[in-house]
Amino acid sequence: MADARRTAAQARLETVVAENRFGIAVLAPLIGAASLLAGARGFLPAWLAFSPALLVFGTAMLRFPLAAAIGPELDRRALAVLAALCGYTYLIEHVGVTTGWPYGAFSYGVELGPMVAGVPLALPLFFLPLVLNAYFLALALLGERARAPHLRLPAAVGLVLLVDCVLDPGAVALGFWSYADGGLYYGIPLSNYLGWALSGSVAVVTLDVAFDHRALRARLDACSFALDDLVSFVVLWGLVNLAYANWVPVLCTAALVCGLLATDRFDLALARGDGEGGVREWG
User: Fold this and answer.
1) Helix pair angle (149-174, 190-210), 10° resolution
2) How far apart are CA 65 and CA 271, in angstroms?
């Protein structure tokens, strides 16, 4: 009975995502980027600009395609390992906020939802999907070569760092967080990327333990919207960086777009928004 309910819920989620791909992957991040920029420039009332509830809700909505894509692979082992990874995420972020290690001394300028001990309660919702997207993209780009751990793991970590080269400058420009001593890369110190290399490596290796990469590759073949969350990421943060003339992050966004296009994942259904091109196989 429980398996039947899970299968039905999974099928419903996939249907919702497949029928609303354009709205979730393109329109929603366009609206999000416009709202964030308007809030940062004082065009929205204080109660609405960077509303914690709206930030968490909007981020959760953008995660629907990734949740639908990964859902069938979430067995007990994967859930247990992901729970441990969530704990690690909270721990390293708390250490970072209180000691400045490993990212460099930084502080939040915006409450990203409820905060506990200086750390957003929704932190895994923000961090883990970035790593999952990078891992998925690495598998898609490598194809059969993804069987080799010495290729897929460094590729995934490299993509995690590329993602943060887009995210951090945009977030700093918006005032989401800031670094006490600044830094050469749009106010971000090198230590931040050394910290991301550490936390990203731990997260990627943990995901590699949690999931069978061969099953994830098969899921990528079966689910055309598996990388739509990364599409929404490049739309939102690419536009934010473009608005602030952060040209290196814009080039990093272009590199991610090229990677997405190289996977040949996006059919005309995404452009038309007609709901086709979703899951080709489920069972």
Assistant:
1) 130
2) 16
User: d(Cα 214, Cα 108) in Å, to the nearest integer?
Assistant: 38
d(CA 143, CA 129): 21
Evaluate whether 195 touches 96 at the Cβ level (below 8 Å). Answer: yes
CA 185 to chain centre: 21
CA dist., res. 90 & res. 155, Å (int): 25
* Domain positions in the chain: 2-272
CA dist 254 to 26, 37, 160, 161, 202, Å?
Answer: 16, 20, 15, 15, 26
Q: What are the 10-residue block averages of pLDDT along the chain, 283 residues in total?
A: 88 95 95 96 88 95 97 95 96 96 95 93 96 97 96 98 98 97 96 97 96 94 93 97 98 96 66 48 34
Structure tokens at 105: 């001394």
